[in-house]
Amino acid sequence: MKTVVLSGYYGFDNAGDEALLAAISSTLREYAPDLRIIVLSASPARTQQLYGEEAVSRVNPLVLVRTLRQADLLISGGGSLLQDVTSWRSILYYLGVVALARWLGTPVMFYAQGIGPIQRPWARRLTRIIANRVQLITLRDEDSRRELQLMGVTQPPILVTADPVLGMSRTGKQTLKRPWPGSVWPEFAEDLEAPEDEKGDRVNLKTLEGPLKREGQPKRVGFALRNWKDLSGYKIAVASAADYLAEQGWEIVFIPLQYPEDLTAACEAATKMHNTYTLMEGRSTVAEVIQEIARLDLLIGMRLHSLIFAATLGVPLLGISYDPKVTAFLEQLGEKPVGNVENLTPEQLTQGIQAFIQRLPEARSHLRQKTTELAELARNNAQMALELISPATAPPPHVQILGAKIDRLDLPQTLERIADFIVSGRTHHVLTLNAEILDQAASNPTLLELINKADLVTPDGSGIVWASHYLGDPVPERVTGIDLVLALVPLAAAQKWKLFFLGGAPGVAETAAQKLTEQFPKLSIVGTHHGYFKPDSEEELKVLEMIRQSEPDLLCVALGAPRQEFWIRQQIEKGSYSVPVSIGVGGSLDVIAGKVQRAPAWMRRFHLEWLGRLLREPWRWRRMLALPRFVLKVLRQGRVRSEE
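RE: above sequence
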């Protein structure tokens, strides 16, 4: 039986985080019913009672070591765990748990997290160091990906999915043991009014009478507020807008998500009203909060998970932003905040509500479409987590030759991966690896580390293909630098990607660009420069500024291997530019410019390019000695494998 440990803000009576726990644990169980789940909780007994999962203390060091040592995977998340706005202790705790797990040899996944704000320099450095040592990172929004990128997190795969709560099933498969039997989603529960002894802390819906008393069944609007800093102006704005809606016939409900903090905020806003309102008092369970939101016609919320609950239930929503995570979620839905808590006025909020009500039917339809898309992304989190502990029977994504990882992709798959890199906007290093460079790397740990840091490594040359077949782990085909460039050019023209050519002798990059644009008139080559510049020179600084100013999607670097690989890695790690894809292309620009002829087609077909190059450039014979050395090293690796 596999064991997964969940680390998050669990056991603190925050409805949003408790919903995350319900979503993560139940979605994992849908795919792996026999999975053992252990929750690190501030209130282990209550967590175990509510969710039926094992729970242990989140702060007892001996318990943490024992629990993490037996785990097959630590899931850190979801929620905004890595931030230092509320307290620096929070980020230190969560990173500490992750660091402890890695020290004990336990794999770690950041699960649909929201990153930041992280303001303290030491916290940013610590996040970079520890995040680069986890196995997989999934994030709930693009802003979080950009934040990690700015901090220099480059090692694990980073994928943007969606908040786990958006992926919770409403079929009855996912359950909270209390307060309702059946589904956590109340509109699907068989019995919303469970027997008294099956309920947790009862919520007290206390209706406070104001001067107006309306009859019938009015529309209901809910407000989910929280205290923020020492601000109070937004509570006046909420009270004014709530009065306006009450006078239009709406029933007003205040729904606190975290007890008792949110109850205080709701009371302060509600008591400023002149009309009737309803206030949820006491400690509410997740299911009770969701039940109340399900009865609404409109939710106006500050709390992120109040908005997520509403979206999942199909309840139209308006967000008041107090944190970038709220804005990021609204953007995923194609919406904007109605205002910011720092400067929200009664007029601004009321006018925003009026405008939104005018388009309620359209907003409801749009919401259904967006949440359907996000639900699939949210459920991918669980599938990827389980893949880490129970890999599929498909071959691994990499072939290992002399310690180097080479991607198991053919040319079309390589083009598709590069297209994904460009769409992501994050910087990536694509490396085309031949036998000569791999022979050097086998005795050069720095070069080998550089190769394994690359985001994509293609098998450039017959030596790599032969080695993979000899070792019984074949790559699909050769993907050489020149073939990759020639395949990318028409794709770039069709997709309107911008290219920059760097390298070769003076005039080579310009000639190559001219020939390609003549062949593909829609191709956009936004810059060229020769490769004859010294490291850290004024000319190199000029080159980097040209790249930054032209903002290419694809940078082709022809400085010769392995110099071009070290140059690309250095610029990515220094943050010299933000180009999505940098590729070392060797002599490809010389070939495209017509300065060097490719080997004849028959030589390429029989993998004899090395012979053609030797005949053309006989002075290279010393470098060709790398090929027999490479063969001997591969034979030795094969012998070691057979002995094992």
